[in-house]
Design a protein that fits this description.
The structure is a single chain. This protein is an alpha+beta fold. The chain contains one helix and three strands. A three-stranded antiparallel β-sheet has the order 1-2-3, with no helix packed on it.
Length: 80
Amino acid sequence: MNTKKFCDDCKYYDVKGESCNPTLGLCRINSPQPHPEPLKDGLFPVVTGEDWCGQFEAKEIINCDRDHARNKERIRPSNL
């Protein structure tokens, strides 16, 4: 039995934007690391949905019908 928990199902796996490769995302379990070039934003590790690590936490499953109003503020694009 395969017990590995993959990034694709982790709450810290973040797929954003219109990527040419939708299987790539960012791991946001830790704060961003400094960029090697001064005055640039920090960097999060780039991972695939099939990667895994020992810090996996399952994504929260949201019932969209019941929780839509409560979660609307949290998932608004301006908060991303």
